[in-house]
Every structure is written in C-alpha cells, then in structure tokens.
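Students often ask what a holo structure prediction actually looks like on paper. The answer is less mysterious than it sounds. You provide the chain, you provide the ligand, and the output is a string of discrete structure tokens encoding the 3D arrangement of the protein together with FE2/S2 (inorganic) cluster.
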Amino acid sequence: MGAGKFVYAYFLHSFFSRLSTGDLMTEPSEQGAQAVSPQQKPEISETQKGKNQEAINRGRRRLVLACVFGYLGVNFLMVLRYFFPRTLFQPNTQFNIGYPSDFDIGVNQQFLQSHRVWVRKDPGQLFVIHAKCTHLGCTPDWEPTQHIFHCPCHGSEYDIDGINFAGPAPRPMDRCWISKQADGTILCNKAMLFLDEPYAGIDQFNEPHAILTI
Ligand code: FES
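The corresponding structure tokens follow.
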C-alpha cells in the first residue's frame, strides 16, 4: 500500500471511529462542560451520552435523507431530460425560389447558404442543383472564372451543369424537384432528388419536375 493510500485509509478509519463514538456530533461547549464538574460526572455523563446518541441518530437520519433525496433528484433530472430531445433543426426542404426572370443565365448562389442549392438557368430552361458532392458529401465551390464546381475535399470537379468530369465523384450532382406555381413562381423541394447514375442505368434528369421549360 502506498503512503497516500495509507494516510487516506487512516483518515477514513479515524473519521468513522469518531463518528461512531459521537465525537463529531458533540458540541465543543458540551465537551468543555464535561471537564469542568468532576463531582457531577456520572449524572452529566448519562445526560451527555443520551445527547450524543441523539446527535448521532440525527446525523444518520440526515445522511440517509440526503442520499434518498439526492438519488430521487438525479432520477427526476434524467426523466426531465427526455422532454428536451436533442433535435437538429434544419431548414424546410420545400421553399419558393421566385420567378424565372429573377435569375440571370448561369449559376445563381442565392440559396446556397440557406438551402444548399444552386439555381442553374439557361435560355429556355431552369433546374436546381443540390450542392452536395456525390463522392462523400462535401459542398463544392462554384468557380465563376472557370465555369466549374470544384470540391475542396478530394478534388472532384463538375461542369456548369453539375456533371462530374474529374476526381473520385462517381456521378453528377443530384437535382431537386421543382414546379411552376399558378402565380408564376417556382417551388423547390429538396427532399425529392433526381439522379443521373450512368453505371446503374439511371437517368432522371429529363423527368418532369427535374427541369423546367421557361
Ligand atoms: S467529397 Fe467531394 S471529392 Fe470527396
């Protein structure tokens, strides 16, 4: 046993010995009174003994109550915690991007921060690209001078339509569901994606709502 453990054990032994004999529960003034009157010692000793025992019992009761209430309190907090789930708040997957005339020809980054999409407009058509690299899911950067999307994670590159041509990305970036509303604005739903997976024979880029004729 190391010196530290020995001192610790000695301290615990001393503490509990004093607790069992009532030394810790006895008021200093009472101890002093015990020493002052030797003639009355037997009578005071009996009284003192009763007081000590009562103090010990009171201390034990407090200790037990503290343990019980502590245990109940911790359990109550744990139950309370279930009423506050760790919810991850994400933007609504469905949102309105406005009129086709709001966008210039090319790539618009207006909704990149808020909804992680680019609006891609060409003469006569418009579609929305989900800004998520198809390799491991990073957000690529739009490079306006080169007219490409570049993924900073592992170097995948996509052309202006989001078609992959370099790096480890296995397929083009997905496109979001879009629909023209009665008022002429475009509703976009990011929860519905269209894929182009040449190796699996999937080509959904020309399906209705993957692209709009404007
Ligand atoms: S996540 Fe984009 S290249 Fe790896």
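The two ends are 85 Å apart (CA to CA).
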